[in-house]
UniProtKB/TrEMBL annotation:
<protein>
    <submittedName>
        <fullName>DUF2249 domain-containing protein</fullName>
    </submittedName>
</protein>
<feature type="domain" description="DUF2249">
    <location>
        <begin position="3"/>
        <end position="67"/>
    </location>
</feature>
<dbReference type="Pfam" id="PF10006">
    <property type="entry name" value="DUF2249"/>
</dbReference>
<dbReference type="InterPro" id="IPR036868">
    <property type="entry name" value="TusA-like_sf"/>
</dbReference>
<dbReference type="InterPro" id="IPR018720">
    <property type="entry name" value="DUF2249"/>
</dbReference>
Length: 68
């Protein structure tokens, strides 16, 4: 699943991401694309038991893959 959060004002990207994680099945990956690095999201992911991989994209956005 890919969730494009570009163009949204905080806290919308984090709220959309956390809502999408509720429907994420075991072994699935949620990929989000944000305008900025989601610093506050990382703490939430850790508390919920998720891991993440963040890559800055050539256009300056960030692609974050979230998984268990």
């Amino acid at each position: 699943m890919i969730l494009d959060n570009r163009g949204l004002e905080p806290p919308q990207p984090m709220m959309r991401t956390l809502a999408a994680l509720e429907g994420l099945g075991e072994g699935e990956v949620l990929t989000i694309i944000n305008d900025r690095r989601p610093m506050f999201l990382y703490e939430q992911l850790e508390e919920l038991g998720y891991q993440q991989k963040t890559e800055q994209q050539p256009d300056g956005s960030f692609k974050i893959e979230i998984f268990r």
